[in-house]
Amino acid sequence: MAAGILSGPGHKFRLCGLKPHQPMLFPAKDSVAWSRKTVSNGSKTHCMKTWNPINNKKFETLSYLPPLSDDSIAKEIDYMLKKGWIPCLEFDEVGYVFRKNSQIPGYYDGRYWTLWKLPMFGCNDASQVLNEIHECKKTYPNAYIPLLGI
After folding, report:
1. pLDDT digits (tens, 9 = 90+) for 67-122
2. In this model, does residue 4 exceed pLDDT 50?
3. Is this model's pTM higher than 0.85 or not?
4. Could you tell me the superkingdom of the organism this chain comes from (predicted)?
5. Where in the chain are the domains?
6. CATH class of the structural domain 70-149
7. Helix (H) or strand (E) holding 88
8. Among 62, 86, 96, 116, fewest CB within 10 Å belongs to which?
9. What residues contact 126, with CB distance under 8 A and at least 6 apart?
10. Using CA atoms, how far apart are residues 85 and 126, in angstroms rounded to an integer?
């Protein structure tokens, strides 16, 4: 679609189909529109907390949460099942990514966790997943056990 040029009375060579040009390049600083476009670096935000990176291992995405109760975990599992996701458990004694054998790029040692049994295909109840979590805790008491929805 091409834009045409109008040159009749009342038109000053504007393009049709495009926004007309603004008479001012920058709006006045006292206008409401200008105050909405100002940049904020969050200096007025007092409720934010940063993660301490010194001697503090980074875990998975929601690792800042406190340990969840069985009821809280059951609600998370119910959410997964409603979305059609398949619950899956992993475990490892070390809860963070590490490199044991090599530091070269493309070497994936220490990035994957061990799968606890198979993904729970056909699972339709949170109690089934909670039983597997308790069994994994009993077998590996010091392990980190993330619950995934695949």
Report:
1. 889 999 999 999 999 999 999 999 988 776 666 676 677 766 666 778 899 999 99
2. no
3. no
4. Eukaryota
5. 70-149
6. alpha beta
7. strand 87-91
8. 62
9. 73, 74, 75, 77, 78, 81
10. 12
